[in-house]
Fold each of these.
Amino acid sequence: MALQSQNRLLTCIQCGKCTGSCPEAGRTPFNIRMLVRRRQFEYAIEESLPWYCTSCGACTLRCPRDVKPSEVIIDVRSALVEEGQIPVSIQKALENTAVQKNPWGRSRAKRGAWLDLTDLAIPHVSETASRRLLFTCCIQAYDPRCMVIPANVARILHRGGIEFGILGEEEVCCGNEVRRIGESGLFEELQEENRAAFEEYGVKEIITLSPHCMNALKKEYGDLGIGVRHYTEVVADLIGAGRLTLGGDYEKAVIYHDPCFLGKQNNVFEAPRTILGAVKGLRLLEFSRSREVSLCCEGGGGRMFYETEGSSQRNSELRVLEAIEKGAEVIATACPFCVMTLEDPATERGQVVKELSEILIEVL
Amino acid sequence: MNLLVFTKRVPATQEEELRIVDEGRAVDLSKMPFKLNDWDNYAVEEAVRIAEKTGGAVTAISLGDSEADEVLRRAIAMGAKDGFLIEADRVLHDPSARAELIRTFLTREAVAYDAIFTGVQSEDDQFAAVGGILAAKLGLPYASMVIAIDSLEGGQVTCRRELEGGGQERIRVALPCVLSLQSGINEPRYVSIMGVRKASKVERRRFRAADYGDLGEGMIEVSEWAYPPKKGGATMLSGELEASCKELLAILKEKGVYQ
C-alpha cells in the first residue's frame, strides 16, 4: 500500500461518522468503519463487501481525520481487480469500456447517434471559435431514456447563445466509475485518450452533462488548464444574466433531488435551484435530506452495473415515497444516474422523474 | 502438464453495423474494435486453472497478423507462461489450411504438449473445425463441446461434453489429445489493463506463417459476402391486459416455447 494512504489509514480514530453517513449502513452488511479497521490490521475483507459502496463520498467529506474512506474502498477494489476476482457484471462493464469505450459495450461509432434527436447542426469542437466542448457521457450517448438530455441541453445552450462543439466518437468514457471500481490502468488509458483529444483540438472549456463526468474531468484528470462546469452552472448563469428567458408555465409541485457528484462532492447546490426557481408556476419542494445530506440514489460506484444481495428497501424507493408524501408531482434531478435509479420505483408508484433539461425544454 | 491453447483475435462485431465492400469480396474491418475470441477466453481460463492445480504450464498460440500479439498478452496476463505468434500477412479462413499450418508448426518446432485446447468456434468464421481437423492430422483423439474437465492425470483426461436438451456425456480421452471447450465451462477471471501491461514484459516468440505453409492453399474459398435478408419487425400486442396475455400465451404455445 502506498505510504500516503497507509498513513491516512492509521489516523482513523474509529469515530464512526463514516458509517453514520453511509447510505448503505444498517440496511446492508456494509460497514465502512469496520472495513477501515480491518485494513488497519491488514485482516481479510469478505469479497462481496467492497462492492456495496456507491461512491457518494459522504464518509470522506465527514471524516474528521482525512482518512478518505472512499479511497480505502478503491484500494481494496483495486486489489480484487488485479486478481481478476470481481463480480461478472462489473467485469463486463470494464471489458466493454476497454473495447468500445463505454460500459454498455455499444458501438463507439454510434456515440454521436443522439444528434438524430435534434435538428440543430452541432459542429465538431475543432470547428468552433470558442473551443467549448460539450462532453456527452456514455449513458446519455447510448441509453434511449437519457439520449434526450444532450438534445435538450444543446437546444437550451443554443437558445442562450452559447457556442459549443462535441467530440463525437472521439470522446471516450470519462472513467469516473472505472476509477471507483478500482481499474486504475483502464482509467489511465481513458484519461490519456480524452486528454489527447482535448489537446489536439485546443479545447478551452468543457461543459458536462453528467456530474460524474464533471467530477472526473475537473478533479481527477490532473491539471488540464481547462475550466470544467456542469451544464446547470452554465444555464443558471444565463438565467441570472437575463440571456435565457423561460416563457412557459410549469404549474407543478417539483421536488429536487441533489445528486451526490453534483451536490455534496462538488458543491453545486444553488444552480439547479436557481433554474427551477426561474420556471413560472413551478412550486419547488425540498426533501428532508437535501443538499449536503442528500440521500444517495445508489447509482454510483459501480452500482449501476451490479446488483447487491439483500432485500432491504432501496434508497431510490425511499426517495420516491417521501416525494409522494410531500405532495410532489415531479421528482427533478440533474444527473442521469439518479434519473435511472429513481425512475423504476417512481414509475411503479405513478410518480414522474424529470432531468432538469426535460423541464426546461418545456418552458423555453 | 503442458497445455497449448489456441487464441484468435477477432473483431467485436456485436454492436457494429458491418459494411460489405469490394463488390462483395470483403467486410470493412478498418474501424472495428478487436478482442480475444470469447470461446478462447474460456479455454485459456480452463487451462490456467488446471496448470495452477497440477503445477503445469500453459502456452498460448495465435495464428494471425502482428496485432494478434494482443491476445497473447491477455492470455499471459491470465496466467499463461508464454505465447507464440504465427504471423501471417493475409487472412486464412479455411480451417483445413489453418490446421495444416499449425500441424506443420507444432511438428517442426517440436512443441511439447499433453493437451491442446481450442474454443468450440471462432466468432468471425464460425467453422468450429480447426480443433477436429488438427486432431485428425496429428493422429490424436478429439472431443468437442467440452463443458467440464473433471480430471487430467495418469495419461488421460476425464471430461463432460455438452449434448442437446441440457444433457451431458462423460468421456475418458487418452493424452495427448485435442479438446474444444464450450463457453460456460468456467467463469473467466477479469484481466486488468495493468495486468496486460505487465504481461508485455514476458517474451512472445514470433514465427512466420509462410515458413510453415502456403497461405494461398485452401480447399474452401470465400466467394461472396452478402447481407442476411431483412425480416419483419416485432408484433405488437395491444388491447386489454387480460386479452393480450391470453394472446401472448397462445403465441408462446404455438412457437413451442411454452408447453
Amino acid sequence: MATEPVALGSKGSNGAGAAKTPAESSAANSSPAQKRVVNDFSIQVATVNGSGSQSANSVLLKSVFAMGIPVSGKNLFPSNIAGLPTWYTIRVSKHGYVARKKEIEVVVALNPETAKDDILSLQPNGVAVYEESFNLKQYRDDVHCYPVPFDKLTAAVCPEAKLRKLVRNMVFVGVLAQLLEMDLAVVEASLRKQFSKKVKAADLNWAAVQAGYEYAKETFTERSPYVVERMNLTEGKIIIDGNAAAGMGAVFAGVTVVMWYPITPSTSVVESTIDYLKHTRIEADGKATFAVVQAEDELAAIGGVLGAGWAGARSMTATSGPGISLMAEFAGLGYYAELPGVIFDVQRSGPSTGLPTRTQQCDIHSVAFLSHGDTKHPILIPGSVKECFDFAIAAFDLAEQAQTPVFVLSDLDLGMNNWMSEKFEYPTKPINRGKVLTAEELAKLGEFGRYRDVDGDGIGYRTLPGTDHPKAAYFTRGTGHNEKAQYSERPDDYIHNMERLDKKFETIRGMVPRPVVVQDGKSKIGIIAFGTSDFAVSESRDQLKKEFGVETDYLRLRAWPFTREVLDFVASHERVYVVEQNRDAQMLSLLKLDVPAAEVVKLRSIRYYGGLPLEARTVTDELVTQEGI
Amino acid sequence: MATATATPPAPKTNRIGLQVLDYRGGKTTLCAGCGHNAISERIIDALYEMGVQPERVMKLSGIGCSSKSPAYFLSRAHSFNSVHGRMPSVATGAVLANRTMQALGVSGDGDSASIGMGQFVHLMRRNLPMIYIVENNGVYGLTKGQFSATADLGSKLKTGVINDLPPIDLCQMAIDLGATFVGRSFSGDKKQLLTMLKAAIAHKGTVLLDVISPCVTFNDHEGSTKSYKYMQEHDELVSEAGFVPSFEDINVEYEEGSTYNVTMHDGSHLSLRKLHEEYNPMDREKALNMLIEATGKNEVLTGVFYINTEKPTFVELLNLVDEPLATLPESRVRPSKAAFDDIMTRLQ
C-alpha cells in the first residue's frame, strides 16, 4: 500500500513491523484457492478524494456490522478537498479486534494513481477488485484478481450522466457482497437506512449494488478465500464516531454556549453538537436554549467560552493542536481567574500545521501546562466512543465544580472514525453546577470572598452576574488578587493564592476518572497506555501471550492529574512500558513528575508517531525487542 | 444621642431609590487629570440618572489604563478584566449566557485598534447588545508612551518621535461593519458625553463610543493631537444631543427641520440638533463620507454619527429563549430519556 512506507519510515530505529510472526509466514507460503478465512481480514478501498466513496464505505461497514461481526472502519484521507488519494480500511474481526492492522487481505482499487501500489501491498492469496482498464493482473500472480468494468455497469443503471460519479462506488459494494458471500438483504437494509430520507437516491444506489452483484455472480468462477459469515456479536451495539459521541455528550450535559473555530479533525464535534441541539433543544415556541457562535479565531472561541462560563453558562469549544496554541493566553486566565469551560482537543499530528489529517497523541505537554506561569489543567482522556460521551458530561461537571477549564483529549482516529460500541447510558446523576451562591444564601452569610478557601478543598464560592444582592459582585482579573478578589501585589497574598490553586488541583485528582487496571498480581511487566493506543495494546497483549508466552498487566490512563492507582501500578511491576503516539514520550515525562525517583528507571517507552493509527504488531515487536526475547 | 428637631434633608435618590454613592467604585489609581477618570464619572452619572440597577450591569475590559477603570465605578456590578484585546469575545460569551444584563465594555485604543482589532471588528459586525467605550488617547500609557494605531499622522511624542502612519478611525469602522449606535465624544465635554451615554443605555444593539481622552502623562503636550488643547481647538460638533429617557415627559427642545428625533428601543427619545451640513444619523453612507472628509480637513468630529434601531441584535438572530441561558433548569437543558433512546435506536 502506498501509505505504508510513510508509516515505516517514521518509526525511527524501533524496527517495529519488520518481523513476521510464524503465523504470517505460513500464510504467505500458502497457495491460492486454499482454506477459507471467515470473518478475520481487512478490506482496503482506494479511491480519489472527493469521489463520493464515503456512502459506499459506510454501507459496506454497516452491512458487516448488521451481520453480527465486530468491525471497525478507518478513513485515511489527505488534507485536500478533491483529487488526492484516499483509503478506507474495514477490519472484519471475529475476535473483536478493532485496531488498525497492517496486512490487507482484500483490496478495491479505484484510483489509477495508486492502483499498482495498492495491489502490490496485498497479502498473498488476497482478493483484488479493480477497474478493468487498470490491468493489474500483470503485477501479481499470487492473488485473486477480479476486474470490473465500473463505468459500463454504472452507465447501465444510471442514465443520468452527472449522477454516475455518485453511484459508481456503490458497484464495488455489490461485487464484494457477492465475493465475500454477504447477505444481500442485509446490504439492502443498510443502504436504505443510509439514504433513509432520500428514496430516489436509495433506489439508484441499490441498482448499482445489484449490478455489481450480478456481474460478479455471472463473471467470476474463482471463489474468494475470504468470506463473511453471520455471527451474533454486535447485537444491541451502536456505531458512531468519537466526535459525534462527544457532541452528544455535551448536549446531554446541558451545554448552553458553544463558541468555536473550524479545524480538522475537531470540526465534527461542534457540527454534531449543533445537530443534536437542533433536534433536542428548541422549545415549543421555536426559541433555542443554546447559542452557537462560529468565532473569528480560536482566541475568540476560548474567550467566549470563559466569558460565558463566568456568567454562569455551561460553555465549550472544540479544536486541535494549532487552536490549542492560540488559546494559550486565555487558558492561563481561566486557570488563574478560575473560570469554568470545556475544551475538546481532537489531536492531529504536529508540530505546526503538521499532518492535519493524520492522528497522534501529541498535545499532552502543551495542554497540561497550557499558558505561561505556573499553570496546569485537568485532562480527561477518553479511550472509546462511549467514553467520549461519558467524559463530555463529566468534563462539564468537573469544570463547574472545580471552577477551571477542563480539557478533553481525543484524537483524529477516535474522533473521525466509526466505532462499534455498547449503547451509551442516559446520565443518572443530576447536573452539578458547583459552588454558586444565590442572593438568599448571601443574605444569610452577610459577605463573601470569591477566592476564600471556606471548605478546605481549595475551591471558593462564586456568584453569577445578575445576583440580586449588593454584596454579590466581585472583580474578576488575571492580575494578582487576594481572597476578596481585590488587586494585590503583596507576596503573601500571591503565594497564598497560588498554594490554594495547587490544593485545588489535588482536589481535582480525586474527582477525575480513575484508570482501568487489568492486573493479576503475577506479571512482572506492566503496560500503561491511553486513548486510542488501547485498541492496539489490547490486541498486542493477546499476541504477546499467544506467540511469546509473555503475560502482561495493563493500566489505561483516563485522566491527568494521575490518581493513586497509577503509582501503585508502577510500584508493583519490574518494568512498565508506556505506549504512546508521539515522538517525545510526553506521557512518560508527565509520569516521571509523579513517580518516586527510585522507580523512574522502571519506565520504558514504546512510541509510534507516523500519523496512522497504532497497530498491535508495532507494540508487540517493540516490547519483545526491549525485553530481549 | 441628642434629639434634634430638624431632620437632615433626605439624600438625593434616583427613580429606583439609590443614591449616586451606590454607583461609585474603588479609588482610581490612574494619573490625576486622566481623561479616563472623567469618563468613569460620566458613566456613574448616566447609570444613576437612568436608574439602572447596579447588579444588572456587567463590566468588561481588556488590558491597559482604560481597562483598569471599571474598578473605579459601579462596585456593585460584576466585572471582568480579561486579556489584552480580547474583551469582545469575553463579552460575547457573557451576553449570550445572560441576555438580561446590561453589558458595558471599556477598552482603549491599543486594546481595540491594535492587538484587539480582530475581535473588535467581529463584535461590531454581530451587533451584540452592549455599550463599547473606547477611551482613546492615542498612546500606550502603561508601557510609558508608545504610539497607538489611533495616533494622528504627524502627531508627536514627548520624546520627539513623529507618527508617520495614518490613524485608524474606529467610528468609521464600526459604522461600516454593522454597529448600530456610533458616536464620538471628548472626556472633557461633560454634557455631550453624559447625553450620549444615557442614549446608549436606551439602545439595544452594539453602541460604540469613541471618547477622546487625553493622557496627561504621555500625550498631552504641544504636538499631540489627542491633547486637551488640540481637542479644544479642533473639536467640531456634528450635532447637539438632547435625550429624554422613557420615564420622563417628552419636551421638544429643538425647532423642527433642524432636528432628528430618534425613538430608542425602550421608548426614550434622542433629539439631535443638526449643526453639521452633511449630518444625518440614519444615513450610513453619508455618516461615513462625513467622517472621511473630516479626517482630510483635520477636524475631530464629535456627536452621534449613526443610529439604526431596526437591525436585529445578535441575541435576536440566535433566537434565544427570554431567560438567561446560564440559569436554565436541568429540565430545559438536558434532553429527555426518550430523546436519548431515539438517538441510540438510530445508531444501531
